[in-house]
């Protein structure tokens, strides 16, 4: 697909919707205050030249009007700048809010099948940087470029009204400053800018290796070499930055140079015209100052244009992420799901890409309501795919998942998920208070319900020890809770959500044996009266939660056995091994 | 809002000392004073870093001043030429030299600006290189054990982005700050002789420059910094929500979250705008004085010209200089973000670089007295204690005898000191009391690196470095040839993994490389251990995160590896303990039981109870 040159930015512009009005208002106010600033210098020059002439020749002069104009322009400029800053901040904040909500709306239906990048530190920080860039596009690119493009023709028109050669001279210089120079800058800085992005990624990876692999490096005596490598990468990065910085500064210092050349040229043209009496002396002074002041508008252009390419690339990347199709589409007329469904997998096959191996390769598994099943197997055996298929996060290609007598595809995916409580291996704790984190599961939960769930999850002691109890801020990613505590929050959430089906995804993974052991009571409470699907690579310590165990290998169920469980009625004791 | 700030400053304070438990961290002292303290520490630290680059900063400032002097000369030339044109009816030939000189000076000024920026950049570059070097040195001094307790993402951000954020402060903010004071003075000195009245107008407004420096650097900056922190927090909340998308979908909470996000950003916008309406007044006043001084100069000069009190050349000269008077100060405002970024980064870096806690740095002996042993060592610990933070002991009074060639299994709950023991043996910690002896020599008599070379270590999650599979295995012995690599791979069971990889030994691993499974990664670590062929083998629950089949395979490969070496194995499953020569049970940093498995079973003590628990589960 060959998008037009401004494709991503144009789309970005459309995304902004109603907030565009604020942006246009911002441009208008900026333009007014800019023009007032230019006019101030031009009129001032004209005024003192006229006054000097009047003083020399004794001519009578109306000095009230220009003096008043000068004061008016000064005030307009001052007030304009104030209003301009307010309006532009308002617009920026509105753009920011609009952009983020838009992104949230677009990404929500894509999670988790199409949002793998969110779990990848590198890609995630790039997304952050991209969004940041788009948020600043208005102030950093939009305003300077649009104001320059609008102000310049007005200045040229005034110049042309007095002396067209001056306008022509300015036009040539302005074209060089506003068009040729930025283009040259973009072309020259593209390669180093891209290389710099690579440098930075390499630097980040090298520091990551040094930090995460510190023990290995120390043992193998390789830490000094790694540090040296980081210093070399730093030097390369800085050399590249120096190159870019020098380019930018060269571009930026060319603009005043052009402005002053235009001023000198205007002086010469003006001197000739004044001697020929085609132009009055004060007008020449005015034109010289007008040109000088007008170029200040152009001074910000090189930076704006260097940002242009980066912003465009950022927009393209963001659109690429959000343009993914949701993995699972809802049916046109979704059925009403039953309250306590029997579930059965029948020959379910699933894969993540056309050419990928089957992640589920004909899975048959019956989960009548109230049954408790553990699915074990090595990583890559298909356990997570089984959960993803049931949660409708991933579509399956063939076979059926029967849910209360109908195919699961006849329901809306949200309705299916509404029947399943999941204790995730890495449940996300939001950067919010504990109670807000619990209410994610159930916004209308009463205090009593929350306390009951916290008690059942054996979290009461933890809450009591927190400085502000339920109102304790948990910090980013639940930084203030330990792994075991975070897992208890996940259990409390599942209890609060109170759903007929419980999906436990490696509920004790990453916890030490003692902590895992202490979670058992809470998990057993949670499992009561529900269908339980337990996913784990190791059943040890969890076996009493289930009464049946299946083992997966290469996307198939290869063994099934009933278990004697402490909390479940002992079934017939039959143990059938299919393998 | 105050809580948000508290939270932030607190977390910044404690980043460098994550050793405290969450509850203790949360009960930090009065947040407001802590915050002020952090800001002044950051500022002091930033000032300290100037020392090494003062030369470059002064050069940049000097060129900036030179540029302003040239500007004054230009203004004089232009004023003279306009005067000639206006009042002396000069022809083009008469003003041509002035115009040419004007353009020539413009060229020199541009060159000055480019060079000044280059000097400034050099200052920034040097600070970045120097600070990053010191950060890495601090990492090394604090050691792998400390690093393992930190959030690696946070450390990477501080080392890469945090240090990078310093550059613009030195490269641009500081030179501009000097310019904001120096350049108006130069302009004033030039303007005064030309027209004392206009000079007086500037002089009256001149004290406003430092006044506004204080105002902008004080009230307005604090307001702006607070907004910036809130904005940052708002951003964090948004991206936090993105990371929790799956959780939101699982609980059907997406729509609610969206409402929350919309409300928060709307509330932020309202609040910010009401603050800004006042905050921008200070820059309004600055702008007002800048514009009014131009207007007043123009009007005053105009009338004095008409009355013949002043020559046109002088009047024009002053008018041309008037806008330049306030320009540097306004340019400084545009760079305030550079300063804020640097201050925020400096707070973190100062904590990291200045507060190296004791007991972390294993000092390598200048002259190693003894060669590290090539044979399986005999290790004795006597009353060993070490603290990884003041008052927080990792090990306390540990006495142990590890016979040459024996296998010792260490069991105990997490936090009981098992991993600390291994780290101590690896030399990542120096004991604060007691001695560690190897074959009768104190451990610190060995060269730290030579001692490390005698150790093979299998961690829970081996780190795979960015690079090829070959690089990753060869890390253990950079001079190993392909034969040795193949042998190690076979012994470690890595050959089976290799067969499944299309690129074989050249398969890229690490962050963007091929993702090996836990079992495969463990085989890479095993291959490293084989290649290293060290007499002391340390096993830190290498099968903890593996599924049963992989765990079994790795276990078998380890059985082969342990032959003829002194082995210390940390285990949480006790089946490993039954075949050990010695079992050590640890709790709260102390050894509570040690002996042969048979002895301990007979004693019916802690080990016996642990075994019983495990069987019951």
TrEMBL record, chain A:
Keyword ATP-binding among UniProt keywords: yes
GO cellular component, one term: plasma membrane
Keywords: ATP-binding, Membrane, Nucleotide-binding, Transmembrane, Transmembrane helix
InterPro entries: AAA+_ATPase (IPR003593), ABC1_TM_dom (IPR011527), ABC1_TM_sf (IPR036640), ABC_CydC/D (IPR014223), ABC_transporter-like_ATP-bd (IPR003439), ABC_transporter-like_CS (IPR017871), P-loop_NTPase (IPR027417), Type_1_exporter (IPR039421)
Membrane topology of the entry: Multi-pass membrane protein
Single Gene Ontology MF annotation: ATP binding
Record-linked SUPFAM superfamilies: ABC transporter transmembrane region (SSF90123), P-loop containing nucleoside triphosphate hydrolases (SSF52540)
Segments forming domain ABC transmembrane type-1: 24-310
PROSITE patterns: ABC_TM1F, ABC_TRANSPORTER_1, ABC_TRANSPORTER_2
Subcellular location: Cell membrane
GO biological process: cell redox homeostasis; glutathione transmembrane transport
Chief subcellular location: membrane
Residues of the ABC transporter domain: 345-579
Residue spans crossing the bilayer: 21-41, 47-65, 136-156, 162-181, 284-302
Pfam families registered for this protein in UniProt: ABC_tran
Protein name: ATP-binding cassette subfamily C protein CydC
Organism name: Oleiagrimonas soli
